[in-house]
């Protein structure tokens, strides 16, 4: 996990260099304009799919939703998907439910796109179009480089559909390296402060909600923490009542509308005595016990960077708590569900 976190700047730079391949897929999508988009995924890829949902809704102005695979695999639902774009996101491309959903959607008229780190996977084989995230083999169970590469691939795809040329991510490899280097001390402080935490809430708004979800998953699977993710808005709609002095709150706060919307959330949890950690390009402007800033980018690009110190924190906490982040108990690299 340590090595694969460190590989990310080079992986991201390499993916930007291969943008032409993704742009070719985008041209095929633009030639068949969809009436709306659906996204199918599991695990970390589901968080990447949520990020893509925001991209599609905000940048393309299209309705977008997340698929419930069991609607197809368990209940045999047969909706009309003519003129629909289905994007299936899977690092391994091997989960039977995603393969079945993609096959079924293609039969029902959808334009299907597989976004995967495994070009020879079953998922890629059944989709009409494919995007290779080019992260290289990932051995650690906890996804790190495949997650950020998937985010970037999805951004490049959506940006190219709208006619963009990836300008906001042209230096993403350099920015990722800066993020890892400059956040090291803040991560170390966070690990020291939260190594004995029992309960963690992660929260974000907008594009950064995906990062909050991924942060919760990483803390749970590597450090066995009771971590729960919320949209900042949903946190205020009831769950904030459970926040107290024993609660650690990891708030993802990058510059932009989503980060600005987190001010009320942080005021609420702080008033209840929570110990707050902020991560993101707006972190230093937020009330918190520990702040981990990252370089500022366009808001829609921020999740690619803001998750990097979170990955390092999950790794550090796992080691500090005596765990083995490369071999979390009860988990395998590829999980096959139906």
TrEMBL record:
Xref: CDD domains: SIS_GlmS_GlmD_1, SIS_GlmS_GlmD_2
InterPro entries for this protein: GlmS/AgaS_SIS, GlmS/FrlB_SIS, SIS_dom, SIS_dom_sf
Alphabetical UniProt keywords: Repeat
Residue intervals passing through the bilayer: none
UniProt GO MF annotations: carbohydrate derivative binding
Chain ranges of the SIS domain: 25-167, 190-328
Xref: Pfam families: SIS (PF01380)
Record-level GO BP terms: carbohydrate derivative metabolic process
Protein name, UniProt field: Glucosamine-6-phosphate deaminase
């Amino acid at each position: 996990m340590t090595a694969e976190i460190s590989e990310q700047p080079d992986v991201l730079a390499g993916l930007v260099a291969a943008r032409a391949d993704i742009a070719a897929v985008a041209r095929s999508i633009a030639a068949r304009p969809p009436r709306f988009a659906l996204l199918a995924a599991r695990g970390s890829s589901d968080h990447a799919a949520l990020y893509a949902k925001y991209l599609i809704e905000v940048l393309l102005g299209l309705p977008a939703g997340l698929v419930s695979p069991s609607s197809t695999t368990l209940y045999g639902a047969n909706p009309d998907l003519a003129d629909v774009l289905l994007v299936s996101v899977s690092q391994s491309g091997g989960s039977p439910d995603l393969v079945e959903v993609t096959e079924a959607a293609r039969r029902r008229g959808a334009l299907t796109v597989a976004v995967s780190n495994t070009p020879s996977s079953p998922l890629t084989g059944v989709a009409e179009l494919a995007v290779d995230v080019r992260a290289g083999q990932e051995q650690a169970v906890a996804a790190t480089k495949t997650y950020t590469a998937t985010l970037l691939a999805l951004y490049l795809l959506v940006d190219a559909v709208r006619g963009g040329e990836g300008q906001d991510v042209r230096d993403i490899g350099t920015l990722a390296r800066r993020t890892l280097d400059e956040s090291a001390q803040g991560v170390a402080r966070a690990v020291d402060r939260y190594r004995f935490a029992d309960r963690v809430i992660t929260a974000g708004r907008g594009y950064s909600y995906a990062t909050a979800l991924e942060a919760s998953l990483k803390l749970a699977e590597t450090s066995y923490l009771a971590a729960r993710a919320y949209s900042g808005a949903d946190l205020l709609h009831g769950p904030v009542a459970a926040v107290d002095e024993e609660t650690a709150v990891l708030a993802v706060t990058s510059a932009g509308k989503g980060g600005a919307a987190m001010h009320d959330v942080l005021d609420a949890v702080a008033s209840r005595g929570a110990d707050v950690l902020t991560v993101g390009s707006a972190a230093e402007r937020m009330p918190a016990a520990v702040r981990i800033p990252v370089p500022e980018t366009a808001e829609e690009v921020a999740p690619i960077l803001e998750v990097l110190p979170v990955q390092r924190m999950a790794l550090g906490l796992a080691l500090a708590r005596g765990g083995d982040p490369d071999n979390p108990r009860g988990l395998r690299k590829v999980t096959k569900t139906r």
